[in-house]
Write a structure and sequence with these properties.
With 185 residues, the protein is α+β, with helices and mostly antiparallel strands. Helix content is 18%, strand content 34%.
């Protein structure tokens, strides 16, 4: 019975992969071994543009968020941690206080702390999409006042795409924003 179940599972998995277009893949050796094509009597070499994809993967894009964290009066706020959050990571403002090493490593990689004038710059690689989430929280205590932690959405849809698209890499989007925070009561 267990063998029948495993065969059924494999068949279903292969059927789904076939429907998604993951049925075959050429190797670089096979492409290189192909003779040059002829087009209107002229030889045309096989180039990476007209060869089949050599790998499966997930499209990625780099996101850069720059800007300032400001209070309701428009003054820059120092000591605020700003983290661009990938949906696949699932970090919430509450989870950022955990001593989980994976969470802390992600914060170090994708976050920044505002300088004396409230400026920050965060970097992240993620699936290409327009809306990303940002967590802003006060990490310096009452040194400059206490501010509420919050999660905000930023729309990278209007940001210009820089960089050359190569394979699964879709370039880099940079956005400059001001994020307003409120003091705790």
């Amino acid at each position: 019975m267990k063998i029948r179940f495993l065969k059924l599972k494999d068949w279903l998995l292969m059927s789904v992969m076939g429907l998604l277009g993951m049925t075959a893949c050429h190797s670089a050796k096979e492409v290189a071994a192909q003779p040059a094509e002829e087009k209107d009597g002229d030889e045309v070499e096989v180039t990476p543009r007209n060869e089949m994809a050599l790998m499966y993967g997930v499209p990625t894009m780099d996101f850069v968020l720059k800007g300032r964290v400001i209070d309701v009066e428009g003054n820059g706020v120092s000591g605020m941690q700003v983290v661009l959050v990938s949906d696949r990571v699932g970090i919430t403002p509450d989870a950022m206080h955990d001593d989980n090493e994976a969470v802390q490593a992600y914060i170090r990689e994708s976050g920044d702390t505002t300088d004396a004038n409230g400026y920050f710059e965060c970097h992240m690689s993620d699936f290409p999409k327009d809306v990303q989430h940002v967590i802003v929280r006060d990490v310096d205590g009452k040194k400059n006042g206490s501010y509420q932690s919050q999660m905000v959405e930023v729309n990278f849809g209007s940001a210009k795409v820089d960089g050359e698209r190569k394979g699964w890499y879709n370039g880099k989007r940079t956005l400059d924003v001001d994020i307003t925070v409120k003091e705790t009561e």
